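Researcher: Here's the sequence for the chain we discussed earlier.
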Amino acid sequence: MMEEVKKRQAVSLPEVKEILGHVDIEDMDQIQRWTYDYVSKFVSADYKDAKEMKKLLIKECELTEDEAVEIVNIRPTSLAELRSFTFGWKKLILAETLEKMLKIIKEYS
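Model: Thanks. This is the structure I predict for it:
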């Protein structure tokens, strides 16, 4: 039985881990199991920290939810690395905003 989609929202990998952690593995379909296996092995970031980081990136750096999720998932550690991801967004991001983003990332890492 397929459930109706009530809301679409970009979520970070730590959020995925938290959500799927509340589902009985026997009730998961194959894709959910693979996803849960992946996030269980590779995601060590705290769910609450990831959620707060996403919120701050959206509010203080004027990122979209999708952009903020990308940054939360990747957690770039330098300006050069951060620039390589934001370059693909096809919008100008000021150096001071990049610095603010890096500060937020470091605060929750």
